[in-house]
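Posting for a labmate who doesn't have an account.
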Amino acid sequence: MAKSQSQTIDLPGNDVEFEVRNSSEATKARIDVDIHGVTVVVPDFAEIQPTEVLRENAAWVIEKQRGFEEYRENIPDRTFEAGETFPLLGTERELIIEPSQSHTITDTSIRLRKSTVEQSTVKQVLENTYRRKAREHFSERADLYAERMGIEYEKIEIRNQRTKWGSCSTTGTISLNWRLMMAPPDVVDYIVVHELAHLREPNHSSEFWSLVAEYDPEYEAHSDWLTEHSSRLIFSEEDL
């Protein structure tokens, strides 16, 4: 799909930058709005004016764009320096870099081994530490809830999906986003229960939500927390 250079259009008092993408798969024009900007997708060989499509949907475009602008404003401005705080299971912990034999985590700090950081970067070592803790914690919680729910799963995979917190394959693999380790424990448990429930109920049916509610009665509040605070779980600009 070929994409044009960025253009600008005035939509009721708002200068909106957009790009045009031609698609052989598209059957009708559509507008994609995400944190990276606005794109008008038009079918190949169709006589469609992207500006007209934007004007017809101006209110929706402006609303979506403002939502993403607010989202971006709430993303933590991380410098990855000693003394900065990072959340782990909902608790802010001070980042400390010190000569030591290994990385350690306490109730108030994340302590990284200085020699390891010097061979890499603070950001990379910190991410690796989160990923390692994620595998331990997610596996522990999945084992606990799988036994309670009478459900078997194949394995846990740690990923960094940009738009998903978790997913479940038909083969029983539960994939969970390591950045969930920055969320409160109850929110992590909700995602674990959610994905395990899919092994019994593939769709978001009433039976599925009843199963989730049985093991997480406050699942709606936990889901709302993720919707409201997901920007706080952005680790760096590379996650966008």
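Reply:
Got it, the structure tokens are right above this. The first strand starts at residue 2 and ends at 3.
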